[in-house]
Amino acid sequence: MICFQYGNGVAVLPAAVTEHLKKAAKNDLIVLLTLASDESLCRAADPAAALSAKTGVAVSDVRASLSFWRGTGLIASEEAAGDEAGAPVEKAVAAPKIIADKGLPEYSSAELTAIIDDKSKNVKELIRECEHVMGKIFNRAEVGVLAGMIDHLGLDGEYVLVLLTHCVKMGKKSMRYVEKTALSLFDDGITDAKALADYLRRIEALAEVEGQIRAL
Fold this sequence. Notes:
The protein is mainly alpha-helical. The protein is 54% helix and 4% strand.
């Protein structure tokens, strides 16, 4: 017999969480469990920063995880439920619901083939270039991530290549990480290659300074 030792607190989660565990990464689970166990984080002026401070997960990774869970429909940013300053609140919902433009879809074989064969978007050539940047041949799921970025988010090839190059430079060669980062950037309104390049230059400069400080 297995029993939970609840102690002084309980984290309540919708049963639908189990449907998304296979796709959830370590940071996704840390963020979700922390959010469920401390309701005050939902009402923080900046929930991502508050979660980062409590969990030790980088703010950018927290934002990516929040985007992932919003894509599943398990949490939602609700302006109407904001705090006194009007900041949006991350709210856990009791059951999944569809949230427009959140998350990358899963394509059938026919749908994926149609996207890849669309000559107007040069998807086949882009896949080859992305494979070269990442240093590997993509499997079907990884091609599906690229298809979702192009078809669902409407990002162009230059944007995708800039993002992948940044992820490789930061030591992140997982398309799962690329997917979460793309969703987070899309949520933040960074949807063209120039804005992305400017944003990533700042991120990389900050990472370099942080590395120097840690070395000291």
